[in-house]
Amino acid sequence: MEKLLLIVFAIINSVFISTSAAREFNFDGANLHRRSTDETLCNQLIKPAGYSCTEHTVQTKDGYLVALHRVSSRNKDQGGQRGPPVLLQHGLFMAGDAWFLGSPEQSLGFILADEGFDVWVGSVRGTYWSQGHISLSEKDKEFWDWSWEELALFDLAEMIHYVHSVTSSKVLIVGHSQGTIMSLAALIQPNVVEMVEAAALLCPISYLDHLTAPLVLRMVGLHLDQMVLAMGIHQLNFRSKILIDLLDSICDGHIECADLLTSITGKNCCFNSSIADLFFEFEPHPSSAKNLRHLFQMIRKGTFSRYDYGMFKNMELYGQLNPPAFDLSLIPKTLPLWMGYGGHDSLADVTDVERTLKGLQGKPELLYLENYGHLDFILSTQGKEDVYNNMIGFFRSLGKYSSS
């Protein structure tokens, strides 16, 4: 049993972004450390770059305490004036730090602030910046009883409400990867979308059945998500001591890791080893085994639906045998949408993006970059020129946001 446990852990950690993937950039696992609770996102990445940063805590309806960080331009000439609010929502095994890993000229969080936007950065429950709850500890298995469904309907929804309340303005949403799953599910809800001005989705995902990442498909085929839950593992924490020790040994002749990152995300064209080094200093963040299970259900079934508990519990919770689908056509046709996606993205496959587009009433503005992979959209050294200027132009085209 112990041997099986180690094998399962090894495969899980080799498939998802880990120290092993870092070896592709010729650096070791020294940066994959457990983060102190005294460290904050503002102090670690944002204030040292010269930007104003304040920390906010939002309580969700199910009791989680999630972090929001508000970032202002380093440009003193703006005279304290705040522009339109924009909320950035990260992807799987990441947190709000993912938007600040390059230089101020390369990172979307900094770029939007310097363009005059009122930048708010969300970090979902379970990440290192958001491990609070009104009654539960992160050591409790109940703390990890959630998937991206709760992240969308509780975390993101409450973040949008908070930003809307503080700024008295409709909110611009930017999501990447899992952040786009959350955004699409949240925007279906009338009480959420009424607070949103527009949304920009990087690597948009609502369907995953054409995913081509070979190592992810291997995990799905082995039903490792079910094995992990059956073994009583509820938290996937890649910075725990046992997993750090295991990660350090994975590539020592046991598993071929040379092309691991490419095998997970697709071939990334445009970020370098220095950004990758900082990436692995802050990522990965914890997530729940249930979240992984929900994503694997999407891959196996080709659906964009609520969590599948099995027929009997589905009947109890949903009143039907199969979990209800999230209906993309319920997103208002009048809501402005922008989407950026890449030809080398093995997670947000072009075929699945096209299916998402067909499900919408409206017609989003699209940016397609043939050479971009999944991580390029947040880590590219030329992201401002390739992606962000286009996105910012979309926001400014809405009229009321024409000046910084």
Which key phrases capture this entry?
single chain; 404 residues; alpha/beta; Rossmann fold; nine-stranded mixed β-sheet; 17 helices; 11 strands; 38% helix; disordered N terminus; AB_hydrolase_lipase
Task: Give an account of the 3D structure.
The chain has helices spanning 2-15, 19-22, 41-46, 108-114, 148-167, 178-187, 190-193, 214-221, 224-230, 241-250, 260-265, 273-282, 289-301, 311-318, 350-359, 376-379, 383-396; strands at 52-59, 64-72, 85-89, 118-123, 132-133, 171-176, 196-202, 235-236, 287-288, 337-342, 365-369. It has 404 residues and is of the alpha/beta class. It has a single domain (2-396), classed as 3-Layer(aba) Sandwich (Rossmann fold). Helix 1 (2-15) packs across helix 10 (241-250) and helix 9 (224-230) runs antiparallel to helix 13 (289-301). The model is unreliable at 1-35 and 250-258 (pLDDT under 50).
Summarize the structure.
With 404 residues, the protein is an alpha/beta fold. The protein contains 17 helices and 11 strands.
